[in-house]
Amino acid sequence: MKIPPNPADPLRQAARLMEAAYLSEMLRAAGLDKAQSAFGGGAGEAQFASFLRQEHATALAERGGIGLADAIYQSLKDRADV
User: Fold this and answer.
1) CB 45 within 8 A of CB 39
2) Taking burial as the number of CB atoms within 10 A of a residue's CB, which of 25, 54, 57, 62 is the most buried?
């Protein structure tokens, strides 16, 4: 029986944040932060698009992401157990 992961574990939180940062950069490279006049355009939209991209990345990571957080968590846990 596999024990479900504890989301309050500081190592798991750090791993999730790292995955979110990675996903944010991948979304930026894919062009997600380019202004598309969703908010009416202008300089404000361009400035706040990065916040929206970061929130998308955080939401993706919190819902399982691409599995990177699990790999990072395992690596951090292995180092902490040494």
Assistant:
1) yes
2) 57
